[in-house]
Amino acid sequence: MSKKDLGSNAYLDQQRAILNEALTDAGLDTLAVRGGHLRSPEGEHTEAMFMTSSYVFDSAAAAAARFSGENPGNVYSRYTNPTVRYFQERMALLEGGEAAVATASGMSAILSTCMALLKAGDHVVCSRSVFGTTNALFTKYLGKLGIETSFVTLTDLDSWRQALKPQTKLLFLETPSNPLCEVADVPAIAALARAQGAKLVVDNCFCSPALQKPLALGADIIVHSATKYLDGQGRCVGGVVVGAQADMDEVLAFVRTAGPTMSAFNAWVFLKGLETLRLRMDAHCASAQKLAEWLAGQSKIEQVYYAGLPNHPGHALAKQQQRGFGGVLSFKVVGDREAAWRFIDATRIFSITANLGDAKTTIVHPATTTHGRLSAEDKAQAGITENLIRLSVGLEDVNDLIADLARGVDAL
Ligand SMILES: *Cc1c(COP(=O)(O)O)cnc(C)c1O
């Protein structure tokens, strides 16, 4: 969002000045509740939902000045919308970036970043352990446009280094990874990107800014699926990109041209979600830790993957980079696919669904759902075995969640 796209008139300018002064040096919780919200002259207390596709002008001359960019302000909601702008400004504040651009989904946040920053002939290095659809976007669609992607092992710095080419423009990763909670050394990979003149993009979906600040760790751009923890209650699909003003100007230019815009309604829901983000994330982390420890003590559970366990290979790095270990964990049961399915089917509280980052705990069998389209070889490389189960730990009473896990263990 460049300066000329900010809603602007004497009243809003005054509101912005008051807000900016109040939020100087504010903590994360204050930014999550107050950040970005400019009141209209109606004096509403909560953020208003501007359900309007277009905006009117005082005169034909004013319309011309607005369209030409000579005067700042709203023209059409594919370009700017006040509620969407509140969300963008709040996300930029929370992630510590200069600007943010909201998008219709997490996938369109990734697509818009790539379309803004890449061209035919450019090369991308991407972690193998990314969201399955992200992998498909790079391989199938960007590949068709002449943008080649090499996939590397998230935790192996040498594999990142060896994949770099003179035409590498973008490095892309998720940390911690899904579903095995592998942790990337973000500062080290950011240094590789910088030396190459490439940009590091981090998908911060699993931690959210309440637990991890990738820009402070050296990343250039953050993408989010707002669908997950930013909403936190499984209601809306959305995404956001955060980074330097110059990069976000390019991303916004793509979004307003191609149209994967966030709706005002969804932006409003995400603003409400952000107000409780840190409280929710702390509760997700506390319960996930307890469930991981409980599972680790069961003889019918072969292995537990959660960076909060001291024996997890990413434990020390996660402690340095993250404020908490997150709400997602996975585990392998003793047995095969049939045993894993029996475990899942024996639970009563968990929802059997691939969604995550919800107040409701979800359970899924990655090998036949989220990662079902991978070849046997890719599954093996990603550690997705038939006896693996993923949990996204919700906000229910932790004792009830342990009781549900016990039903699964009893079925083994
Ligand atoms: C869900 C998800 C996405 C895609 O987001 P949508 O909002 O579903 O488009 C991207 N990255 C990660 C890590 C995700 O979990």
In short:
The protein is an alpha/beta fold and 412 residues long.
Quick tags:
about 400 residues; alpha/beta; Aspartate Aminotransferase, domain 2; Aspartate Aminotransferase, domain 1; 2 domains; seven-stranded mixed beta sheet; five-stranded mixed beta sheet; globular; binds pyridoxal-5'-phosphate; pyridoxal phosphate
Description:
Its cofactor is pyridoxal 5'-phosphate. InterPro entries: Cys/Met-Metab_PyrdxlP-dep_enz, Cys_met_metab_PP, O-succ-hSer_sulfhydrylase, PyrdxlP-dep_Trfase, PyrdxlP-dep_Trfase_major, PyrdxlP-dep_Trfase_small. One of its GO terms (molecular function) is lyase activity. Keywords: Amino-acid biosynthesis, Lyase, Methionine biosynthesis, Pyridoxal phosphate, Transferase. It is an enzyme of class 2 (transferase). By secondary structure, the protein is α/β, with parallel strands linked by helices. It has two domains: 272 residues, Aspartate Aminotransferase, domain 2 (3-Layer(aba) Sandwich); 133 residues, Alpha-Beta Complex (Aspartate Aminotransferase, domain 1), CATH 3.90.1150.10. 41% of the residues lie in helices and 14% in strands. It is built from 15 helices and twelve strands. The strands form two sheets. A seven-stranded mixed β-sheet has the order 1-7-6-5-4-2-3, sandwiched between helices. A five-stranded mixed β-sheet has the order 8-9-12-11-10, with helices on one face. Helix 6 links the parallel strand 2 and strand 3. Helix 2 packs antiparallel against helix 10 and helix 5 packs across helix 9. The radius of gyration is 22 Å and the shape is globular. The mean pLDDT is 95. The protein binds pyridoxal-5'-phosphate (PLP).
